[in-house]
Each structure stands twice: as C-alpha cells, then as structure tokens.
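Repro:
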Amino acid sequence: MEFVSMPTGQMRERIKEGLSHDPMATSLIELATEAQFSYNLQRSEATNQSPFEIVTGQQPFTPNAIATGYKGPNPTAYQFAKEWQEQHELARACLHKTRKRAKKWADQKRRDVNFEVGDLVLAKLSGILRNPYHKGLVQRYEGPFKVLKRVGTMAYRLELRPTIKAHHVFHVSLLKPYHQDEEELDRGKSHRAPVGVKVSYEKEIEAIHAERVVHRVGYRPRHEYLVQWKGLPESEGIWEPSGDLWQFRDKIDQFHSSRATRVSLELVGENVTDRQPMTEHNTIKAAKDYPYHVLGLLEDPNELIQSTLET
C-alpha cells in the first residue's frame, strides 16, 4: 500500500506526534505501516477526498466509523456503545465549526489584490530577513520592487536588490501597491542603509583612485574601490566593498566618468593596436602597483633590486 510519496508538513507533524504518544512503540520504523494507513485515510482540503477514495474509489472501514448498533442483553454495553458514537459525532461537529470560525476571521484580513508585470510594489521583509533591531525600529515594508512574473494564483516574483538575501517569490499577503508622490519625488525617501547592508559611514570620501574585482574560490566575485577618506593622505587609501559605499554613489559616478574621460584622452593620436588589452590580470597588477606610484617609486622594489643585481 503506497498511494503518496511525501505527506505535507502539517500532516507529517501530526503523524510524528501520534507515534510519539504511543506507549507500545519501541521504534518509529515498526509503526511505519500504521502511519501510512492513517495518512491515506485523511481527506484533503483541495479534493475533499482521501488517497484511498481517489485510488480505489472507496474509504476503508475503521473501528470508529463502523456503526455501533449493539443489541445484546447487557444494557451497560449498549449505553457505552451509544455514548462512544455520540462523542465521535460531537467531536467531528466541533472540528467543523472551529474550521469555519477560523476561516471567517482569516478572510476578514485578506485582500483581493492583483498586480501586473512591471508594477512597483512594497514587500514585507520583517519576518523574512534577520534584523538585530527591535521590530518597532524597522520598516514593515521595503521597496519599491518591480513585479517580474506571476507565480500561480497567489504569489509574484519580484526583482530584488543584490543586497537582499531572500527568495524572490512572495505571497500576495506580503505585498501592497507602491504609490509614488507626484509633487515631491524625494518625499518619504529613506536615508538609512539599504536592506541587507549593515555598514553606514559618518565620514566623507576625498577621492576614489581605483577599482578591482576580487575572485575567491567558493565565493562570489567582490567589487571593491580604493577609497581615500577625507583628512587622510592618499597613501592610506583602503579597499572598500562597493555595496558598503551606498552613501557615496555620486563619488562613484564621478570616478567612472573621470576615468572614461582620461582613457579617451589617452587614445587620441595613439596607436590603439599597441596598447595592452585590459584583462583581469592587468587590472589586478595595476591595483598592486598603485601603492608604489603613490610613494613616489616608479618601479616595483623587487624589480628594482633584480635589475640592480643584473647590472
């Protein structure tokens, strides 16, 4: 007898709890057949049928489902059988009433909301992402995010930022439409760190001198910028992750624009075919050579010593 391969999480917990309360169970493996039989008896909310009814077309008889029409001469046995049947029917009626009452209160908070592909929505991430702060100090909804696709009838796939380490499919109950202020576009704009970024700087950037991509085995490539903080010399510049520099997007844009202008000026009147191609190896080598140029050394000290020994 094997009608289903894997029960739902709720049914699995119910079977596990029932087996743990059995005083005769020395091993859960010994009661696997009984547990499977019990699961195949349960009716699904979607089909209103049990696996037995779907596969065989009938529901097996169990002791609590058989009519207890005792007609013997013992009145005590007759009364016991009658009360047993009445208690069973009363329990079923109470469970049905409780289910209807729970559905009634749950439906009062449900909203019939539909989104189209391309719409901007706000997502509730407070119960998904871990946050060290109290829930009263954290925004309930984050965004806006663009709707990419509808998944099923009650979920949507969103375009999340790379800093948000969460699944990109959300139930409709965790979403609400985003309404942008038409008069002041910056009204309500948060100046705190984006979701997933814990770093916030209170100092200013003097200049950005270089960028690089760090590759490590087993990790994603890490994009970094060589930052000179205000009040420090250029020789004390340090590499900062690009995700932590969310407050200084204007400085990053200024660095890229100035570098593009500098490269275009260098190419004027130059034989482009003689230039060394910009590869990952050359970029990393340029980043390593940067401190020597800052300190006034035109050559790498190792290369300088080697050339001196050769002469």
